[in-house]
């Protein structure tokens, strides 16, 4: 297995705990196996571009699912809602042109 594929799988394994415990307790092995298969296929098909596309999707899942989940577990629901709203707004502002009110 190419080093970048191995590294991707290792990083994904490291990131799994940020996702909801109910999800990872039941599906962590399946999630990891699916990710590894996707990474291998992406590498075979388009190498770096394929890996980048997968990691963009993973980054989106970490920001929209993982970080809010982590915030709830660390801060409680009310503060977590505020924190996830701020994170989402910052990501939206950075990614979507014209999405901010300061023009």
Characterization of the model:
The chain starts with a helix and ends in an 8-residue tail after the last helix. Helix 1 packs across helix 2 and helix 2 (21-75) packs across helix 3. It has one domain (3-95). With 103 residues, the protein is mainly α. It is flat and about 45 Å long. It contains 3 helices and no strands.
The structural class is mainly alpha
Order of helices and strands: HHH
The number of E-state strands comes to 0
Shape: flat
Beta-strand percentage range: under 5%
Largest sheet: none
Q: What are the key terms here?
A:
flat; 103 residues; 84% helix
Summarize the structure.
Helix content is 84%, strand content 0%. The protein has 103 residues and is mainly alpha-helical.
Write the layout of secondary structure elements.
Elements: H1 3-15, H2 21-75, H3 77-95
Helix pairs in contact: 1-2, 2-3
């Amino acid at each position: 297995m190419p080093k970048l594929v191995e590294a991707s799988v290792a990083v994904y394994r490291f990131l799994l705990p940020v996702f909801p415990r109910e999800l990872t307790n039941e599906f962590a092995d399946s999630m990891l196996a699916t990710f590894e298969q996707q990474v291998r296929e992406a590498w075979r098909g388009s190498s770096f571009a394929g890996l980048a596309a997968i990691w963009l999707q993973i980054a989106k899942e970490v920001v929209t699912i993982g970080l809010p989940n982590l915030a709830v577990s660390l801060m409680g629901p009310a503060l977590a809602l505020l924190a996830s709203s701020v994170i989402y707004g910052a990501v939206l502002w950075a990614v979507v042109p014209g999405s901010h009110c300061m023009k």
